[in-house]
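Following up on my earlier thread - several people asked me to post the actual chain instead of describing it. Fair enough. Here it is, all 350 residues.
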Amino acid sequence: MDENDDLASGLSPMDDANPPGHPGSGPRSGAQDMAAVGHAAGAGAISHDEAHALDMTPEEEANLDRSLSDVGPSRSLRSDAWRRFKRNKLALFGLGLVAFLMVVAVFGPLFVQDPLDTGGISKEKPTNQHWFGTDRLGRDVLARIVYGVRLSLFIGMVATAACTILGIVIGSVAGWFRGWVDTILMRFVDIMLGIPYLVLALAFVAALGKGVTAVVVTLAATAWLQTARTVRAGFLQVRELEYVEAAKAIGVPTHRIILRHVLPNVFQPVIVLVAIGIGTAILAEAALSFLGVGVKAPAPSLGLMINESQSIFTSSPHLLFFPAIGIIMTVLGFMLVGDGLRDALDVKDI
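Reply from S.P.:
Thanks for posting it. Predicted structure:
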């Protein structure tokens, strides 16, 4: 490679005055020349003459060759997390469960009977016409489970979205402003966490009444506490880093620093909490409906179906078995996905 070739390729001319790795007169110099030498030699190695020009010993030359050969294509955080997630077989199984339940919730109602139709035989065992049998009012159990899964997913996702937004806002405010704002907000969170969850939920239901809307509001109002604490902890750590201080120094508005520089770096544990939170919300909705303070009959709620089957369990066990399997599959799927995301994103502080 002569001087003209060096200039055409954007490298500093290689001569005694400008050896590789030293500043030169070309458009690129220094470390860029060094990187270019490795690429020019091909196959992740440098020539003996180039190593001699750099005053390298044979051992240093061998170490550099190995380092260059180990360099691979860079991966984004998303692709690296997905690669680790795929290694977790239980997480993939949970993702498959969630995908299956999503398909059932979206397309299942197109292929089942009306869940409120009472035209069947009361407490009929599973047959060709009613694969999961019928309940004591003659309603198809399969249809009620399909609609119940759809209702559970709706309540779980809406309630989790609402509590996540609330937790992020309160945690961000407490972690960013600190001082008396942080003290008041976190003491309120501590008080709420000190109350048993079921007691707190029952208190909200008693004030709001029964129904889907009341359940969603109750779950959202009682499930944001952990998210707020997690976001606050992340803000307290990230706000002291150099790039945040630099953004403050050049006059970047506070809301832009929070949204563009701080929040994205504390969002990984929130993703895990969202996945686990959906499963927790679904289980909480089933528990409230089972206790008779959640979704109102005749809505096809899985918890309500289990409640109605208690008195006839010995004669019709299928009325308890199939709704219970629906709850287990739904909650288990989201919990496995959450655990897989925690390992893939390497979240250690949840």
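The chain has two domains: 3-70, 77-345. That should answer part of your original question.
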